[in-house]
């Protein structure tokens, strides 16, 4: 069975990708330092997949650990998720973000080169677009100045991949520019585990629905959008996971080294208030929220042009916004019963 190393594989998107890889007949191998993940995720993965997914605990900046992993496993490819990803935190601790997010990619690329592992999928973000001038946003849209050090690390890592592949390295890589991942595995056994007060919308919505938070604040309703609240492209995490599996297959079948990048979104935008309405519909709850001031750094509206990934990776999203919110709510209820 072909082995795929998932760095940060116990995290939100990494764990769901592990499930999708097993479903596609691959053997995932996880490396995670659990700085932003719970060990209980491994139990959830065991229940879903029926196997104990091999997991190395540690930091993928640790060259000795990575040497051990690559020497103990013949890998077909690597999916590199491991990175710090909190936008606000990155502005308070930029050096931590630059060191961790960039150095970890360099370690992964160097060890891949030593062991002749040729296929890498990199976790990038639509944040590299900033506020696009035209929508839906295409991969060819020029990237803008990053809104945060976090976003800048994603741009720098994309540039590292471009230059490394151009240098005739044996590597082939795909960068996936995620839009807004939400939802959870339909089983309710794994999902998003925000630490502390969620900065992202959907976990804050479900925690408010569960009574953990008293009230959601909608950050602004005076934008130039259908109802004044910001627009985003919310994609189910299982659809996002499947895009990684398709990327690995695409890389395996390549005829020459390549570097390419793809938007991964639904291709549709929804406002914050639409998300609230959809949540109320699927949960049967009236959500307690108020309108507050805009959040600095927020872009007004962004959603993906998905023509390229549809065509080249033969990938289409399967879940709707309501499906995603239903699964997020199901996961929140499961968490309330059995805290992670
Ligand atoms: C979505 C919308 C908020 C919370 C960020 C990163 C991105 C990725 C996903 C890592 C916005 C509004 C939110 C709340 C609100 N992160 N909102 N009240 O900012 O689009 O993207 O997270 O990969 O890189 O930039 O996501 O969920 O924080 O916000 O009104 O309590 O919900 O203003 O319009 P965002 P988000």
UniProtKB/TrEMBL annotation:
<dbReference type="Pfam" id="PF16363">
    <property type="entry name" value="GDP_Man_Dehyd"/>
</dbReference>
<comment type="similarity">
    <text>Belongs to the NAD(P)-dependent epimerase/dehydratase family.</text>
</comment>
<feature type="domain" description="NAD(P)-binding">
    <location>
        <begin position="5"/>
        <end position="327"/>
    </location>
</feature>
<keyword id="KW-0413">Isomerase</keyword>
<dbReference type="InterPro" id="IPR016040">
    <property type="entry name" value="NAD(P)-bd_dom"/>
</dbReference>
<dbReference type="InterPro" id="IPR005886">
    <property type="entry name" value="UDP_G4E"/>
</dbReference>
<protein>
    <recommendedName>
        <fullName>UDP-glucose 4-epimerase</fullName>
        <ecNumber>5.1.3.2</ecNumber>
    </recommendedName>
</protein>
<keyword id="KW-0520">NAD</keyword>
<dbReference type="GO" id="GO:0003978">
    <property type="term" value="F:UDP-glucose 4-epimerase activity"/>
</dbReference>
<dbReference type="InterPro" id="IPR036291">
    <property type="entry name" value="NAD(P)-bd_dom_sf"/>
</dbReference>
<keyword id="KW-0119">Carbohydrate metabolism</keyword>
<comment type="pathway">
    <text>Carbohydrate metabolism; galactose metabolism.</text>
</comment>
<comment type="subunit">
    <text>Homodimer.</text>
</comment>
